[in-house]
Backbone:
């Protein structure tokens, strides 16, 4: 049980209308082989009985802390958790996903082994396969991620990640209402200042049910929020010119793919022609997918 001493990890879990799923996610934290943690659950204005479920669990285990406020969105909910966190390291978990039992222990071992890094991340299982957007670059035991790695894709998720609170005392999610791509925006902000060590050890499981937030928005809205996140980052942070160009090329290709998927050939072709060179493997994949759609149409 949690004592008055500072816990090693603070696990931040924003929760919105997850009464049927949140207990499984919380149980995955409580089953950790490394037990020095607190779990902060932020009820973000749920309209079902999520708060009742959380309150009952809070009574059972003193490591669980429940914070409840009106609906503010995931960014501000996570910031609420960070504000209440007492742990040395901040970790995250979505309220419909799961830690494998080794997650926190693996992170703690990596932290001890690589003390110079402010951010540490592991690997996850997405259904029955390893999530690896760019396998030729990331399929190694360890890799160091910098801002360039987040220019045209997001190679990690918040569930895999933890950071040192003392090293990043002013690190928060942007106080904006964004419905998608907030994790990509956060990692761009983080990697613009700090390096991230990525391990290939699998410690997370993604639950791909139909009510996942990513499944509830249209492709057009997904593109909109990715464009918004990219423009917000470029407008508010110093971004090297080469990386800014890569980010804008990526956005144009994503837009092109959405247009072509919707049979809007003229608009898709226009966006496709804006980008002539694609040094990134992932951008090449998007480029050729767009070309195939163009010729099929």
Residues:
């Amino acid at each position: 049980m949690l004592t008055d001493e500072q816990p090693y990890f603070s696990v931040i879990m924003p929760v919105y209308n997850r009464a049927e799923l949140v207990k499984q996610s919380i149980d995955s934290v409580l089953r950790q082989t490394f037990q020095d943690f607190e779990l902060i659950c932020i009820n973000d204005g749920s309209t079902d009985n999520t708060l009742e479920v959380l309150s009952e669990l809070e009574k059972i285990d003193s490591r669980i802390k429940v914070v409840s406020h009106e609906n503010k969105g995931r960014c501000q909910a996570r910031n609420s958790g960070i504000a209440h966190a007492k742990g040395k390291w901040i970790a995250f978990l979505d309220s419909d996903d799961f830690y494998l039992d080794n997650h926190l222990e693996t992170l703690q071992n990596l932290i001890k082994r690589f003390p110079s890094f402010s951010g540490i991340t592991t690997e996850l299982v997405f259904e029955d396969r390893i999530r690896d957007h760019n396998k030729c670059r990331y399929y190694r035991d360890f890799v160091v991620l910098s801002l360039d790695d987040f220019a045209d894709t997001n190679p990690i998720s918040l569930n895999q990640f933890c950071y040192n609170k003392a090293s990043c005392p002013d690190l928060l999610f942007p106080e904006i209402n964004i419905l998608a791509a907030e994790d990509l925006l956060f990692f761009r902000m983080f990697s613009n200042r700090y390096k991230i060590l990525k391990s290939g050890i699998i410690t997370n499981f993604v639950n791909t049910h139909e009510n996942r937030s990513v499944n509830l928005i249209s492709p057009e809205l997904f593109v909109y929020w990715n464009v918004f996140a990219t423009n917000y980052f470029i407008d508010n942070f110093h971004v090297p010119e080469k990386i800014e160009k890569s980010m804008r090329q990526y956005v144009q290709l994503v837009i092109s793919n959405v247009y072509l998927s919707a049979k809007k050939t003229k608009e898709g072709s226009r966006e496709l022609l804006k980008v002539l060179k694609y040094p990134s493997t992932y951008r090449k994949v998007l480029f050729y997918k767009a070309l195939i759609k163009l010729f099929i149409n």
Q: What stands out?
A: The chain has a mean pLDDT of 83. The CA atoms of residues 127 and 206 lie 6 Å apart. The chain has two domains: 9-209, 215-296. The longest helix spans residues 241-261.
